[in-house]
Each structure stands twice: as structure tokens, then as C-alpha cells.
Input
Amino acid sequence: MNCASASAFLLFLSLSAPILAGESGLNSLPEVDFARLSQGDLNPLGAKALAIHPEQWKHAETEHFIYHFVHSYVATPISVEAEFHYRVVAKELEREQPAGDTKSHIYIFERPEAWQQFQALGQLEPWTGGIHSAGSLFIKRDPSYKFAGNLLGHEIAHLVLHRFYSEGIPCWLHEGFAQYVSKGARASYQRARGYNARPRSHAVAAQDVIPLSALVAALHPLPECVETFYDQSERLVRFLVATDKRSFLALLDALRRHQHFEAAFLHAYGTKFLSTAALETQFREYASKDSSPPDASEG
Ligand SMILES: [Zn+2]
Output
């Protein structure tokens, strides 16, 4: 191998290191000095995180994310999942980020006492136990424990949504889309590895269905029915995407501009539903259906 091809090979290795590491444990995410990271984090919680045991933090970055972590063998598989979910979400939203745009920061705690100290500063997401704030993600990861199911994918989906819709979108849509896309992504990841997997969408018992007006107005997952809130939001996103993807993207765009749900919905789906009451009737039935519905994100 001559010098030029050797360096091209090394470049290939360094670019593909996170993928190789995630798949086989061969290579880990290359560490970067804090001062040499391509971007800083303006989120004040980021500085607070790094001030907890400052000596513990190492840093690295991939195309769309910057990582702050303790052990690279913990951060490496997270970086693989993060970039994987970035692509899935961008494809689902039919968006692509301009080159050189800002990256999202992910802080990975390992020590329980450091995490406890940090947790007091932010609001834990009841579903995943992570904290996402203004486009940055803070998680606790026990090196001996793998994130169950789609929890990490769910949080990554929030980060990517925040980049594309930084003006803010309603809580049901943030949570519902994060659940919807991370379940679909997990199933396709497993299928790519030969498993016969389909996204597992949870039905909501008919008597538990939250009235649409309460769901779309909620600013946080409703504390008295957190699980139902997530399941129903996921089902609503799934229903709207399956009904018509173009209309869903139009609805997302209107809600990003903080329009009221009813006006935004009728504008996007007016040829299919006469009113939000008609939506509610059809959706109630769909929400409580047990079988895995057809998934528009598959294929
Ligand atoms: Zn969430």
C-alpha cells in the first residue's frame, strides 16, 4: 500500500470507526480535546453538566452530534444509534440539514451520584428517565446495562425534531412522533439483522382514551396518565401519517407556526375530515385497536 492509499484507508477507518465499533467492538469513537470540538453548547445545562466531576469528561463528535462521556465504549454504540436515528427521522420528515449546521450535544453520565446531582437541575422525561433541554440531551447510562427497547431512539428523535422545528411543536406531537419513529426504526434495525420484527404500537383501552382536546392542549405528558399519553400520542401520529403523509407534514408545519390544532388540522386534512369531531370518532376506534397497524414508515 503506498502512502496515499494508506492515508485514504486510515481516513476510511476513522470515518467508519463508530459504525465498526457499534457492530463489532473493533474501534471506538475517536476522542477530541474539548477545545478542539467544532462547536460549543450554548445550553447553560451543558456547562453545569461538565462542571460535575470535570475531570471525568471526554469528548467526541460525529456528523450531526457532539458527545460528552466518561468511557468511549459506552459512547461509541450511542453514537451509532444517534446517527442511525438522525437519518431515519430526517427521511421520515423529508428534511435534510444544510452542511455545517449546528450539532446536538449528548451528555452521557455513568456515575449515579453525578447523575443525581445533575438531575436536580433539569426535568426528567417520565418515559425514558433522560433530560432533553433546548436541543441537548442528558442521559445516564450504566456501562453494564443496555438501553431497553426504543428509549434511546426516542430521545434522539426529540433532538432531531428540535433541530428541524426549533420554534417548538406541541407536546403530543413531540412525544408521539418520537415514539412512532423510534419504534419503527428499532423494528427496521432488527429486521436488517434477520429478525422478524414489526413496530409494536400499544393500543389504548377504549375507556382510557384521552379526549382529543385535552391531548392536543397538554404542555407536558399528563401526570395522571403518563403511559396512556405516550401510547395515544404515538397512535395519533401513526394514524395521521397512515391517513396521508403529505397532510401530516403540512400539519406539522402549521403547528410549528403555533396555529391552533383545529384550524391547522382542517387546513391540512380538510378534504378527508369535515371536523375534528369526525377525526376523534375515527381515531378513538383506531387508538383502541389491538393489532399492529400498517406502518407508513416501513418499506
Ligand atoms: Zn419524549
